[in-house]
Amino acid sequence: MAVKNYRLKIAYDGTRLFGWERQPGKDTVQGKLENVLSRMTGTEIEVTGAGRTDAGVHARAMVANVHMDAKGMDCDEIRDYLNRYLSDDIAVNSVDECSDRFHARYNAKSRSYLYTIFDGPVKPVFNRKYYLRLDSALDVSLMQEAAECLLGEHDFKSFCGNPKMKKSTVRNIERLDIRRSKGYVYINIKGSGFLQHMVRIIVGTLIEVGYKKIEPAKVQAILEAKDRSLAGPTAEAKGLTFMSAEY
Predict the structure, then answer these.
(1) In terms of domains, do 150 and 214 share one?
(2) Which of 61, 80, 118, 149 falls 20 to 30 Å from 90 in CA-CA distance?
């Protein structure tokens, strides 16, 4: 029995999926991958992802790993088998052998997300599943000013969607860039790790800043208060895409 560790890079459209993590009776990315690989190998398979995206969130290059006996199949054959049997909203871009000690979640040094907003006059039709539509223009300069407060290592309890969180809520944001282009506002965020709904709550808070409902300087006070009720609403899932994990 030749059990090896394989690294997968996966893209998915999260529109009709219930997130990454397996859930009984629901279509999830982890669940679908495990079902196909279990059928391929004839054994129960567990797939580990770099991040656990919420229902409705998309991914360009989610990284995962799986220990299994591939029954003599090479990496390209495993990739092709997966893509043959996975639903059309999930694609495995690559499969390669990796160190037995590689762990997609614990070894990740950082993760990057992109949140896409459209606030222009005429809504784009063909990519409507992948952006948040707003009815009036945001003040991006105010949002950029507020974003500066969130860079670095802080306690992000105010931006955590889990009120019963027992573990540390300290995280490190390495990058938080906001730019406008042709009616779109793109928010790029990179960090060591993220709390439940953390990126979407940050985006919701920055939108409030962009609409002058929250002053940029107040974001620092919201951060220090460690009180979820003071931050903005949780932005819709469909605007969020997991872009990459770095190791």
Answers:
(1) yes
(2) 118
| CATH code (residue 136) | 3.30.70.660
Domain boundary at 39, 68, 98, which?
A: 98
First to last CA, the chain: 29
How far is 45 from 35, CA to CA, in rounded Å? 8
For the segment 145-155, the average pLDDT, to the nearest whole number, is 97
Can you tell me which residue has the tokens 């990058």?
175
Q: What's the Cα-to-Cα distance from 1 to each of 12, 57, 70, 193, 225, rounded to whole Å?
A: 31, 37, 9, 35, 54
**One domain, residues 126 and 164:** yes
Strand partners, 245: 111
If asked whether residues 62 and 115 sit together in one domain, one would say no
- Give the residue numbers spanning the domain of 204: 110-246
Provide the 3-class DSSP secondary structure of residue 42: coil
Give the total number of structural domains in the chain.
2
> Tens digit of pLDDT for each residue in 157-213?
999 999 888 899 999 999 999 999 999 999 999 999 999 999 999 999 999 999 999
Closest CA to 103 of 52, 53, 35, 49: 49
Of 140, 136, 107, 105, the residue nearest 119 (C-alpha)? 136
pLDDT digits (tens, 9 = 90+) for 28-50: 999 999 999 999 999 999 999 99
